[in-house]
Write a structure and sequence with these properties.
Number of helices: 1
Shape: elongated
Distance between the termini: 24 Å
Structural class: mainly beta
Number of strands: 11
Largest sheet: 5 strands, mixed
Helix content: under 10%
CATH topology: Immunoglobulin-like
Length: 146
């Protein structure tokens, strides 16, 4: 199944995005800042929302007793683009620099990244810490692109 990631870039990629993923609300871009904390039970916010093709600055502080991080998973574009033209990727991903590897307790990290082009989609996010897969609050975040 083809996957699209904004890491690739280039003019041909931009043309593919425009042909495959027309903007659903006519608005894109902008700058967004999020300050999140994470502890051993969950994130301070479980819903993050921005426009597509926007720049995000995200600061994560680990207030827990174990390592916790931040990663946004790939997702299907089918809910927002049910009539996707042939040859268009069916999955979309955030860029690799949108991930924060697990931080030690008390540590913070700030990252800046661009959101993908396909909008009208909810991308799941989670902690990615070594013991976090069994903790519901560390696996139920939603990053919504409007």
């Amino acid at each position: 199944m083809p996957i699209i990631s904004i890491d690739a870039g280039g003019d041909s990629e931009a043309a593919l995005y425009a042909a495959c993923y027309p903007d659903n609300d006519g608005i894109n871009g902008g700058q967004y800042t999020f300050v999140l904390t994470v502890d051993d039970t969950g994130f301070s916010k479980n819903l993050l929302a921005t426009q597509n093709d926007a720049q995000v600055t995200l600061t994560l502080t680990n207030m827990g007793t174990k390592p916790h991080g931040f990663e946004i998973e790939c997702t299907s574009v089918a809910p927002a683009y049910p009539d996707l033209p042939a040859g268009c990727p069916t999955m979309a991903c955030f860029p690799s620099n949108s991930t924060i590897t697990p931080l030690a307790p008390g540590a913070s990290a700030t990252i800046t990244f661009d959101t993908p082009t396909p909008d009208g989609i909810i991308y799941p996010f989670k902690s990615g810490g070594p013991d976090d897969s069994a903790v519901p609050g560390l696996n139920d975040g939603q990053f919504s692109l409007m």
